[in-house]
Structures are given as structure tokens and as C-alpha cells.
Amino acid sequence: MTPGSDDIAKCGDDAFVTKGLVSRNISYPDITVQSSRTTFIVGESGTGKTTLLKLFNQTETQTSGTVLFFGSDLSGKTMELRRNAILCGQNVFLFNDTIRENFNEFRKYADHSCMDDHDIIKFLRICCAPEDLDKQCKNMSGGERARVFLAVHLSFMPRVMMLDEPTSALDHDTANAVIGNIKTYCVENGITLIVVSHDRGIVDTFADHIVDLGGKKNGR
Amino acid sequence: MDVELDLINFAFIYVLLLIIIAVMRRSRIDQTKTLVVACLRMTVQLVLAGLLLTFVFDNPSPWFTSVYVLVMVLFASYLVISKNRWLNRKFKTYVILAIGSSGISVLLYFILIVMNADVFNPQYAIPLAGMIVGNSMTGMTLGLRSFGSELTNNSDQMEALLNIGAEPRKIMNPFVNKAVEFAMMPTITSMLGMGIISLPGMMTGQILAGTEPTAAVLYQIAILIAISVAVCMTVFIALNLGYKTLYNERNQMTFSLSDIADGQKKK
To answer: What percent of chain B has pLDDT over 70?
Structure first.
């Protein structure tokens, strides 16, 4: 399902290691994201949190420095990299169709086979999303759409799951439940979870490790 | 049949422009100058074209015909590109190649096979090339505008799909197809109303000049099909080659959405 993932497994234990990374006039500290753990990336806005995720999946290229994914530089094999390190971005996009068709469409784009209803519901439930598979996504609220969007990404079961501000459209309790469930799922399945968030409560509750990109001193 | 226009009588057509000028005054449309300039330019350009064509017809040479057609292709390409400044250099080259190759191949087919005549006969090649290339140009402009809008309106979709490891080729394909459809539809739907709503310009001109309507109709049918094919080929070739220049070997998008938006606003 994920081409070449066996090769990668042998090469290193850390999901991402960066050295001397510079992009868009931001110099990053050297960062190590340990595999099978939950790492939160925090920092004031403008410190390059989203850009860091884009450098991780190489939808952007750094000015200088290296990014290693399980020990290898995959900047020349970006399809393989992105399918193993799925990024769920800030801008929620769903096709104008039912929830079921959204799972199918997204999976088709990444050359995955269709998923049966039982499995789709499993991922929707993890993300506290509506479970009516025939529901039209355009009729859902922003929060519901954000959760379906998360569920679609989780259904790829990548080696590394990256979430950019996943809770911005969710209320406090839902946010806690969703992130709690996702973390549990990732721990059970050995998935490395990387989350960009500025929600202190969520960070303190769920982080195994925190990468602080700085900005105003906040005691971390 | 004497269909030559008397120049003095002909001049009366310009009197009608006063109606447009009156409407503009009344509706406070500040475009009188544009209208006058446009009419002057049209008059001068067409008179020059008429003189040039007379010269070329009187001195038929494969060279004159070829150069005339080539200039048409280049000028049409220039107009398309000047309205789509966001295109990168390679994309622009594909646009020129598409307009040229589709226009010329349809033209050759038309003259050699349908008309069974000499391709270098300027009386056939030049007016036909004008209609074919002119319509390809309009189609190409529509297609590029639609493609640009698809890219700017669907940036969230492209980002999301790129982030799950979809190939840029797959992501942009639906936008290319939509743009090709958008560009072809006006030409195809115009066939529907043909003969009922509109007597097309070429046929009208031939009838005014004394051709039998039945013969004019055959020409018109042939040219409409030729135009549709040329538009279809131009847009299909240019967009299908061109969109591949919009991402690099690292599967990153290499165009800027704000450039496209700027380019389209200016138009």
C-alpha cells in the first residue's frame, strides 16, 4: 500500500530529523521528531509552524539544511514521502458529495482502494464526526467538516500523521475528545503523531514531546 | 451583378455611429474616445489588409501566402499570451505551437481534401486561415481564462490532495478537462442556431457578393466544422502540454495563485 515503506523502516528510528533548516528567512533549531510518539509544535504565529510541516512533506523546499525521514532524504521521492507522512492542512477541503464518496475520492487520488462502510465509520467515530455516510458534506457545519476531513486523513493509516491546527473549528470538549481519540489510535497502531497547535490545554494534556519555535517567551 | 459599394454611399454607414455616441452621452459612458479610436483603427487596418491582399492576389507566390498565414498565427498567439501573462515561458511556447500546428493542419486538410485546390492559392488560404486561427485564438483565450479560474478557485483542493500524496498530474487533470469543455462549447452551441438565428458572416458575405446561397451554405458548413476542430485541437494540445509545466520534479506547484489572479483582473 505504501511503496518502499520497508526500506525506510531499516534506516532510522526517528521520524524526522532536521539539520540547519532555513526557509523563508526563518532559521529553525535542529529538530528531532521521535517515532511512535506524539509531538506538538508550538510557537507564536509567524514562527513557521505550518512551513515546517510543508518542509517535512516537501511541498516546499528549504533554502538550506536537510530533512531526514526515518534516516533518508526523500526530497527526490516526494510521492513516497507524502504518502507515508500524511499532512492534514488548515484549509478544510471536501468534495461536494456524500461522506462515503469523500473517502472514496480522496483514497482514489492517492491510489488506495475503496474502504468498506464499517471501516469508514470506525474513522469517523474516532474523530467524533457524523456517521451518516450518505450525508452531503456541503450541508455540514464547519466543525463537522473539519472532523470528516481529519477522519479521511486518518483512514490512510500513514506512518506519520501531521495535523495543522486540527482543533481551530472545534469547541473545547470536542477538541479534547477528538485529539484524545486520535492519539489513542496512533499509539495503538504505532503511528507517529505531529500536531501544530496553539491550544495550551490540548498541548499540556496530550504532548509526549514539545517543539517550541519560540516567539514571545512562554516558559517552555 | 454589381455589388461594388459606392464610396460616398459607403461613408453613410459611419453616420450610424452617432447613435452609439448619443447613447454613451446619455448613459454617461466615458468611452466615446475608445469608440472613435477603435473605428479608426478598424478602418485603417482593414484598408491596409485590403491593399495587401490585393497585392498578394495579383502576385500569387507560395512565399507571400506562407508568410501571411505565419504572421496571423504569431499575432493571434501574441494576443492570447498578452492576456495571460502568468503563463511561464514553456507554457507560452506550447500555446504558440498549439495555435500554429492545429490551425495549419486543419487549413491544409480543408484546402487539399475538401476543396481539392492549391494550398498556396492566397484567395483560399488567407481568408480560411483568418477564420480558423481567429477562432482558435478566441477558444484559447477562453480556455486559459477558465483554467486559471479553476486553479485559483480550487487552491484548497489542490493543497489537500498534494498533502495526501496525489500526483499533480492527477490533481490538475479535471481542471484541464473543464477548461477544454468551456472553450469548445461556444463554437459547438453556435452550430445549433445556425441558419435560424444567424446567417454567419462568411455566408452573408458570399451571398452579398453574388454566390448562390446553396454553394455558400456548403462552404459555411465546412468552415464551421473546420473551426470547431481547430479550436478543440488548439485548446486540448496547449492545455495538456502546458499544465505539466506548472509543477516540478519534486511534485511542487511552481505557479503563483496571485499572479494568475492579477493577470485575470487586468484583462
So the answer is: 97
